[in-house]
Amino acid sequence: MASDWLERWRDGRIGFHRDRPHPALVQHWPDLKVPAGTKVLVPLCGKSLDMRWLAHHGHPVLGIELAAQAIEEFVAEGAEGVARYRQDGFDICRQGSVELWCGDFFHFHIEQAAEIGAFYDRAALIALPEATRQRYAFHLAQLTPPGAQGLLVSLTRDPGGPPFSVSADEVRQLFEPNFRVTHLGDGEPEPSGFRESVWALQRRGPLTSS
Ligand SMILES: C[S@@+](CC[C@H](N)C(=O)[O-])C[C@H]1O[C@@H](n2cnc3c(N)ncnc32)[C@H](O)[C@@H]1O
């Protein structure tokens, strides 16, 4: 629920945040061969430094995040000036080539996504309960044009969450209707019982709802 996430940010319970770019991004993004200049959608972006890594590698970034606090912390930790504006009900902060839309990912629609050509999901799918994950996969498909490439960092764990455990079968079942799905590998099991899995997704067309 939205209020739970806002509370987590307020209380500093953001164990998911990493203080350096995610190794799976650094390792696998170059293999996707997404041309520099392609705008990357980062759903449920938090204040992830992965966005700065993508920007540094020539990609305009569009992050969407519920918590204004996360966005303020992101821009406060950056060196460049910040432009602020409002569009279609979202408050937007732009810093360099990173624009951060504050609001609900499910309220972000195709008209606003016109220039998006790629996407990056680390800890977005797995932040959502099972019933919402189907909606997420379909919404992501609606926002991305045929041919768009993306990287997904998912996770399995003992029951509980968030983060929620999303099996390989579920990743395929969620995304295969609208994406070509390739399993790139699994991380080492962590002492916490978490184990990440990394996937390349490529948007097919046209859109299928099941
Ligand atoms: C597990 S964190 C991951 C953040 C980031 N991707 C990272 O790797 O650090 C999930 C984030 O999604 C945000 N969030 C949850 N539901 C959302 C929604 N419906 N729309 C936008 N952001 C959402 C939360 O506030 C939280 O910052």
Automatic annotation (TrEMBL):
Compartments (UniProt record): Cytoplasm
Matches recorded under PROSITE patterns: SAM_MT_TPMT
Record's catalysed reaction(s): S-adenosyl-L-methionine + a thiopurine = S-adenosyl-L-homocysteine + a thiopurine S-methylether
Gene3D superfamilies: Vaccinia Virus protein VP39
Family affiliation: Belongs to the class I-like SAM-binding methyltransferase superfamily. TPMT family.
Family annotation (HAMAP family): Thiopur_methtran (MF_00812)
Name listed for the protein in its UniProt record: Thiopurine S-methyltransferase
Gene responsible for this protein: tpm
